[in-house]
UniProtKB/TrEMBL annotation:
InterPro entries in the cross-refs: RHH_dom, RHH_sf
Bilayer-spanning residue ranges: none
Protein name per the record: Putative DNA-binding ribbon-helix-helix protein
Pfam families: RHH_4
Keywords, alphabetical: DNA-binding
Source organism: Brevundimonas lenta
MF-aspect GO terms: DNA binding
Residues annotated as domain Ribbon-helix-helix: 5-66
Length: 80
């Protein structure tokens, strides 16, 4: 798994980690900054909207959509 960067977060009271390529983390960092969310806040929102999609896949899909100009994720409101 060379080239992946792992980040840990607590989601719904459970510790988990996500390993993604640095380019995806760079986009996700921009998403979080644009929405005023911490890393944990962004991961929570992704988790809430991903359905049955694996978390790492949901992160990659969001990064691709955001990089392509799709800002619909910004319209989702957290349950908190």
């Amino acid at each position: 798994m060379s080239g992946l960067v792992k980040r840990s977060v607590s989601l719904s009271g459970h510790a988990t980690s996500v390993a993604l390529e640095p380019a995806f983390w760079a986009v996700l960092d921009r998403v979080g900054a644009a929405l005023g969310l911490s890393h944990a806040g962004l991961m929570k929102r992704i988790d809430e909207t991903r359905g049955r999609t694996p978390l790492a896949s949901a992160c990659r899909l969001l990064a691709l959509a955001w990089a392509g100009g799709d800002r619909s994720f910004a319209e989702h409101r957290s349950s908190d």
